[in-house]
Amino acid sequence: MKRGFLRKMAMIAMVSLLQSGCSDSTTGAGSRQEPVIWRFALEEISGSVQDAYAQEFRKHIHLASAGRIRVEVYPYGSIGASPQLTQLVREARVHLAFASPGHLAQIIPETDVFNLHFVLPDDDGEATRQLASPRLRALLEPAYQDKGLKLLDIINEGWMTWTANRPLHTPEDFSDLRLRTMMSPLIAEIFLAYGASPVPLPYSEVYAALQLNRIDGQTNPVFAVHEMKFAELQSDITLPRAARFITTLIGSHAWYSALSDEERQWLDQARVRLTGYIHEQQQQINHTRLDELKQSGKIRITRLTEAERERFRALSEPLRQRYTELTGETGRQLLEQLGSGQVNAD
Ligand code: 6CS
Q: What is the pTM of this model?
């Protein structure tokens, strides 16, 4: 209770600091003596894949700017949940943040393409390569700009898993399963098609919802199941290889427009350099944590066979049509690009 109160007070202090705009930076790094601050907010806690990205990004920008730019990283819980982070970036109170399509699709439906199942290739390296395509970013760019955001990167954080108190081999296994999903209604529709009863909730509420028996299961990558302690409350983790957890790195459009050419170049260089880095990191983090879960002996691990995956693939396919109904021509192009592999042409 006391801890919750203190956390709330810290959060209020943080938000008022952001609102005051003090130590803000929207001007070029070269024009000042004191370090310029870039605030970077995460949707995940320290030690996560997003944190690994942000720490490397921080080092890169520090080096590139010869120490003139200091990137301050705010892990999940220090500022707010995903929709609040996106809003703070839109208002340029925070300069950079991760915005996962699982939540962001509520305001940018085009990003739901990353929430669809069985769209990206099974090969992880190939999926990462497709996500790094400039043409893919260019297709999404206008939708982000309309919301006052600059799309800076698209990142693969690894395969989503399904956790519950039973293995989930078939759609029948989903029957009566109250499954927590992220907030995009399309994700809920996918799990409805699988036979589950989806319960969209913010990330911060998942552990308590499992504990209080408000939900029976949830879906997230291995690293999150481990670090958010969901594994403590579930007997089974199913590895369906149906979808990956994809996130996007966003900047405030106003902030980005005020950067110098040199600063924008540093951002581009950071993205190029981080593509390979974060791919290896996510694979390693997910692998190590799966091993740790295995060693704990407390959770059963089930990998779906190709035949089992096939049933889910068939059920998920009509949702592509639903996606294009929601997003029109841009959505159709995005889906075609990812589905057909044309993005590889870059
Ligand atoms: O499930 C969620 O809501 C969250 N999962 C991860 C792995 N990152 C951030 C996101 O908000």
A: 0.92
